[in-house]
Amino acid sequence: MNEVATKPSGEIHQMGHVDVLIVGAGISGIDAAYHLQKYLPGRSFKLLDALDGFGGTWRSHTYPGVRSDSDLFTFGFGWKPWSGPPIATAAEILAYLDEVLDEQDLRQHIQYETKVTKASWSSADQKWTIIAERLSSGELEAYTTDFMWMCQGYYNHEKGYTPEWSGMEDFKGEIIHPQAWREDLDYKDKNVVVIGSGATTATIVPAMAGEAKHVTVLQRSPTYFIAAPNRDDLVNQLRGLDIPPDWIHDIARKNVLHTSAVLIESCEKEPDRMKAELIAGVQEYLPEGYDTHIHFNPKYKPWQQRIAFVPDGDLFKCIASGEASVVTDHIDHFTEKGVLTESGQELEADIIVSATGLNLLVLGGIEFDLDGEVVDFSKTVAYRGLMFTGVPNLCWVFGYFRSASWTMRSDIVSELMIRIFRHMSEKGAKVVTPELRETDGDIKILPWMDPAVFNPGYLQRSLHLMPKQGDRHPWIFEHDYPLESKSFPEADLDDGLTYR
């Protein structure tokens, strides 16, 4: 076992061995645990999570109105029917996950307030040694495991992205990022400026508008939105016919995927027409004459960034009522009273919310080493977007950016990993490692995601830190559920993977 440096204050508590150690008890971690328990019941596993409870994003995000921006028929698990409205609040999602933990008896496998900080692979022992900190006490614990299943998501839960603007120290009010929301923040009858234009802004503005004196959205550039009632007419009809819930869930998933595929194809083939339709859809909720061509007319093509869904058009209803307004401009600097834009308009505020995005965190920010040599994942090539060349017995669940919800990929990654584990058993192998083949000598190394296809700010800021992909299978991360849902089950598990 590798020796690991301890904190000056003391010892590392040895916590024993599990066959599979899952990092994260959110959607992906629970999905992985379900699949292991159901399809490989002889394997021992444990989930470690830094938060004080399950749910990941849905526990760490507590800002007003927090809700999904994907429908729960696809964001929910394929094996657990969703019975609520398509777009759900964080509380509803946590209640759904709570049911899953009870129904599948998974609580016994989870340990909370445990932050993994280091993982060391020993080729001699053919296992990982994981060092984790118990956040409640500061004590360090060591676990060993044959396989690490990374399910902690892709961004820094502890710190969101806030640009450095000139004069921020001069502002006399409070600046807060949605990821660092305080429960005691009082915004009643106060002027609020929300800087940002994405899904978080679309969520937080209508939630605050009813109590705040006024909410102003300050955006550098607009975002595409789809506004529609928060209901699924097909699902409601099927529910009225007393169709079994699992049938309804499966039909709803297929219908949502089909609709999404048609939308994306239309955006790619006819971007100008789709742009006009999306802007017109927003205009339906706003007063006649409202200048959507300034405030809701993005510079990029539809689906180069994710299109946010606005349930019941609540964001636009707030704007129409006068409770909220939109300013499209650049920030010149902060003042004592608020923000001065480049056009010379001063937006006065008691509270400024920097809904300016995420900081991406590669594999949870954990320090990985192989026999003492630190792993730089940006120099690895990803096997199907989930395992990495030269790194044994490790996978990272990374969901879809654009073509489907996160959970759709979590499901098929879990299914593929079960196949890989069974294949290892058939071979009598303890170690699986992706390795470039002899025929890959002329492989073209490409970024994790093509910026021409998908280019949100949080990805562009950190793309250089991410693993790479290649120009051929199995080194392509397709970012496409219809393709991967077919290619994963058909994958030759001896192509690109080595066993010993």
Automatic annotation (TrEMBL):
**Is the keyword Transcription regulation assigned to this protein?**
no
Q: Which domain of life is it from?
A: Bacteria
InterPro entries xref list: FAD-binding_MO, FAD/NAD-bd_sf, Flavin_mOase-like
Recorded coiled-coil stretches: none
Q: Which Pfam families match?
A: FMO-like, NAD_binding_8
Q: Which cofactor does it need?
A: FAD
Q: Which UniProt key words apply to this protein?
A: FAD, Flavoprotein, Monooxygenase, Oxidoreductase
Q: Which family does it belong to?
A: Belongs to the FAD-binding monooxygenase family.
Query: What is the name of this protein?
Result: NAD(P)/FAD-dependent oxidoreductase
Q: Write the lineage as a comma-separated list.
A: Bacteria, Pseudomonadati, Pseudomonadota, Alphaproteobacteria, Hyphomonadales
